[in-house]
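Archive entry: two folds, one per protein. Generate the first.
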Amino acid sequence: MSGNSWAREKLKGFSTKCPGLLRFYRRSREDVKRKQFATLQRENPVDEKLVVFESFWGKSYNCSPKAIYEGMLRDKRYDDYHFIWSFQDTQAHRQLLENPRTRLVQRNSKEYEMAFAKAKIWIYNMSVPEYMEPSKNQIYVETWHGTPLKRVGCDIIYESDCRRSRQETIAAFEKKGAKVDYLLSPSVFYDEVITSAFGLKKSGNEAAVVPTGYPRNDYLYHYSLDDLRQIKERLEIPENKKTLLYTPTWRENQYQSQGGFASHMEIDLNELFRILGNDYVLLYRAHHHISTYDWKQEWEGRVIDVTGVEDVNELYIISDMLITDYSSTMFDYGNLGRPMIFYMYDLEEYREKLRGFYFDVEELPGPIVKTTQELAQAILKLRETFVYDEKYQRFQKKFNTYEDGDATQRTLDLLLRGKDGNQ
């Protein structure tokens, strides 16, 4: 182990006992990196035809960065552009190199920092690293990664995150909000929430929020029957089974000292399948913050771990029903108009101690259940009685206002106009 790696591991160990030490180390490191990055920007002119992409800290090729990238490849107006993708594991994404105008960089490498220093356009879905500040000649597009039910950033009201204080979270989000040029919005509701969560009024940056829709959700309007068939074959899901997609979110009070969050299967699988019988397959997808979870391998064939499927859209379109709790997957899945169940076994604790909500959960277009038995009965009932009713339509209108399958096109048009509208 290198000296730097040893130091990082020691700091991780101290962090739970002395979080102030870790914060001091991080601030000092960020200050150094900020100065180094600013020097790179000064010494390297902006490449007007270069776009850099990253999704979920370089873990994945998915979400709106993927949709925008693939849209650029199809759009002749971008034929003379070049593209860089950042990944933690570049080898796992070498298929992107089949396009001669695309190259890959290792996240946090020198090449990574150079890519952001030179690229005209940054496409990101989790906020760029704190030390990176776009120059006046660069365009930073923050696609974000979901409409929130739970409070985010400057709107958090509880001291529930052991990694940082509420005030530190607010300060961090205000800095994030001040540097973005465009924040892509899927709805009128989101316009207001994201303005507040990123402190955009304080920074005078409210105009950064643009009504494009989420590029990633275009696929939900344009997928084919062949897509369905191929995905089910790849995941070995029998055609005669009903498919349930379970997408629980993460919880701040389940942070692990070694990093990441734990997740526990709060569904009694024995009870669930006793009631449902053999007609169902449950797909389990952990949140990207989750590093460990405990569903049992003996359920192979009936419970399938799909956390490794990079693009959650593939799971949406093959699923007959969504089971979630407080996850933003509910809003994306709503574009399909299919049944949803909200398994909120810890509703009171989550609402009153961990996060708090932006709206009353009674607006959700499906039953709220708290036990496995209630969940199973709701599944059986919705299978027989579900209709896309007025409540679901109100939900869709409020939370997916701008979604129509053309969000990527609107985003590409926006980028060609540039910040001054004259590019």
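Generate the second and append.
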Amino acid sequence: MDPEAILSFCAVTGAEAHVATEYLQVADSSVEQAISLFYENGSQPLQSRDTSGTGAGAARTTADTEVRSPIAARRDVLVDDYSGEDGMGYAGAFMPPYAGPVQERVREARSIFDQQPGAGRVPFRDFAQEAAEMTEGDSGSSAVSSRRSRLADLFKPPFDLMHPGDLNSARSEGVREGRWVLVNLQQVAEFRCQALNRDVWSQDVIRELVRRNFVFLQLPTDNPEGSRVATMYNADSYPFVAAIHPKTGELRARFTRFGSAVDVVEDLTNFSLDNPLPSRRNPAAGADAAAAGAGAARTPAANSVYNLTEEEQLAAAIAASELGNGLAIVDSDEEIGSSDEADSYSDIQTIDSDDDGADDSNDDDGDDDNDDDDSDDDGMDVDGASLAHEQMASQAAAEAAGPDAWYRQLPANEPPEPAAGPAATRIQLRFPHGRPVVRRFALADRVAAIFQYLKATVPGAADSVPEVLFLGRRLAERVTQTIEEAGLANASVVVDV
């Protein structure tokens, strides 16, 4: 190594001779490059740098050889409750400490207007159990103020009036008991819904009316069953109150007058009287109707004057009196009901007999030709009496057979299907749990042909009359009309067995 180069490097950098020798060897005896490397290296000797680098590399190698054990898997809950006990959901976890009073007010509002125990609600809940839990919670909690208790009682849903189930179970109960299904959909955020519980369903008159004539089903729209019913019946405003046919599920009426209890009573009463179900012909009569029905069951039906209309009674009385037998239209005095009524019929016969006698005396003073006219009149009277007896006998036989006698008399075989043509029409039969069936019927066929087809083809229709509706009207009341007269050409009817 050149001594002058070493001296020059040491003079500039102030380093030792062996340090200068190392840098000059690296820089190939170039003093300038050696000095530059020296300063870039932090004025440190190359031998110590290499030694430290070697040590660091060895440490890294040793560290790399030590493999960390894997983290053990574990299960945990990220969020303890989705809805949160404070009713704030996920937002409750990020609320600042000063938001405590706000959360308290939210909890209070939720407990008053959405009185459901627990964090969430299930679609098919036991309202009686919920009411008992609420009662126990209110009595056992000393922190609940009296004002809050009064508000909770004021807006409490009518748990004792509500059906504890879904729409299908309510319809089944309505079919068994012959009552309409009254559906009430509630939105917790809508105050009109809370006012409905406070002002309408809490009235004793309305509660008794609903309990007697309806199966009451109140559902909130934020649970699956309430949302399904709201979608099914296109509920666009709340509170939603509607009468549902228990057998077909048809929405028959929607009630919108909730301003006063008088309006609600009027609407529900008019609907009950105008739309009696087949098993309950007079739903508003109550116990009086039941007593009257029991009395009617004890009354003989055959040839009874009470089974006739007023016009038929008058015609039968006149025909019988002209025959000279005022009591011919009844079997005995017991069917009339009292001796006074028997006397009244005897009076009618006596008056008519006197008139006939007077007429006969006047006729004797006249020409002898009138005798032929009298004989003709007697023949007409006999025909009128026979017709009255036939009407009474046929009506008595029909009542003895029951209202469904016409259905039992239908043949159990399927009626022939006519060929397509101008004399035939296609009718769609829509069933609640299946695809619709399209079949041809002759326009001249009676409506009873549709029931005969259902009786022969639908399981379970042979025992009872199926409910067949067209535009809200029962076809069982039009079995004697033709399909064309009933307006069923190319029609679609609803069938429920």
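Annotation attached to the second fold: The chain has a mean pLDDT of 71. The first strand starts at residue 180 and ends at 186.
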